[in-house]
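Input:
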Amino acid sequence: MGQYLSGILSLGLIYVIATVGLAIFTGFTGLFSLGHAAFFAIGAYTAAILTYFYGVNFYLALAAAGLASGLVGFLIGYPTLKAKLRTDYFAIATLGFGEAIRVLLENLSITQGARGLPGIANHTSLPVLLVVTALVIWVAWNFTHSRHGRAAIAIREDFVAAEMMGVNIFIGRLRSLVFSAACGGLAGGLFAHYFCFIQPSMFTSYMSTQLTAAVVAGGMGSISGPVMAALIFIGVPEVLRIANIWRLVAYGLLLVLIMIFRPQGLMGYREFSIAMLKDTFGRFRKGGRA
Amino acid sequence: MFIQTLLTGLAIGGIYALMAVGYSLVFSILNFSNFAYGSIIMLGAYIGYWAMVKLGMPVGLSIIVSILGAATLCYLNERLAYSPLRKRRASSLFFMISAMGTSIFLENLVYATIGARFYTFPTLFAKANLEFGGISIGVLDVFAIAFSAVAIYGLNFFLQKSRTGIAIRAASYDIDVCMLNGVNITALIGLVFGFAGALAGISGMFLGMKYIVYPTMGWITAKAYIAAVIGGLGSLPGAVVGGVLLGVLETFVSAYVSSVVRDVFSFSLLVLLLMVMPTGLFGRFLEEKV
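Output:
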């Protein structure tokens, strides 16, 4: 049972890392990525190829995974964000990007195509995951509470006003995207060395959906909300043993229902804290009249 | 070979154009990317298959059933998933998330209930070819080109000449002023979604007959989005030109380079276009409206 629980927790933490990345991007700049699984895949393949074929040290490979994904994020973000286009353009571009990456992975020789890479060394242990997760959350937290984070929020809320105040929208959005892509790559690298096997069909829109659902349900503009949502989304179906396919049906329905009834998500713009708990319980005591 | 490829490209381009018009129609009024459109197309194909194979209807009648079914679904989609947001005047980001949720919900509902099985339409005229001067073209392709042209021309005629069509065009410029002038916007938007659904039914039917019917066949709408960007988001003539152009270019890439790089090509075209000509051919929505 202990091993089973730590397995779920490990998978949950891998998703938390990627979700925090997406939260910084979608939650804080209001842009939508429909192909975030591609960054995950790039990270997974970069790290796996480095340790598998070249015998590179795991931690170096992990860093390389983050860097490679970040670089690809930069390359894809530069043309699409440069023109300050509507968010729709970016969403469509990422949609195509996700599929294009998968097609490439299926047809390159170094990735061994659809057969995937079996027998990757198992390096991702729970302590490693905990450290990386803490590190990513710490960086994300500092980012959102820095000048750059406030600039990103300003862009999301009203980018015309933000631009008038001297915020560089392009740089702000690109910075968030690169950070987000790097987190995705890091999670991918950990994923590859946790399952010891990767193939292109693992990184489909299913994964992108799960990440997006966690960010939206957790609250766009919060870090702790998406973290909790990611853990819930991995943990609850795993414990209840719900078939994968109904899980996705529920995610879809959940996204629509959240948009209709509680668009701010679980946490809204707030972060989880003792003060928040006191506030919430205080409201309960007063009978909901805050 | 050249003319042969051109004709094949025109046939698939016609279907892309149908989808791109349906997508652009919704975009031009509500100003958001309806990512649920692909699943409506998929359901249209399933309805057509059901009518033709299970109920034994003739082709013409099952196309009509598919059109009516998809139009109803598209209308219901707006009623249930978008109109609560519209009443709250939510930002287009929320619409996009809701659309994505709908699409995930519908696709996986089909997976979970009907199953992942591939369905093929009975080969009525799919295999039949017309030969002239050494060039052969499938009867289905001729039919697709003709039907797309008639549907798009009919819609254009309606939008240009009828009273309701004028109201739809007015709403695409300014929905509030349109409402002030006594147009029933709720009914109008319902009608627009109905039209988009009808186009989805036609394209779903043709895609199903040309290829196969399966739960994620709606992914092909990514091509329609790219086509709409090529033509300029929200422009109907742009959607037609973009769709046909993309279909023809893709077919040439498949024929002369490799069918593997086809999707990578479409996506690269999108990124390239965003860099050099972000408005597309006929675009008017370049940046987000203030």
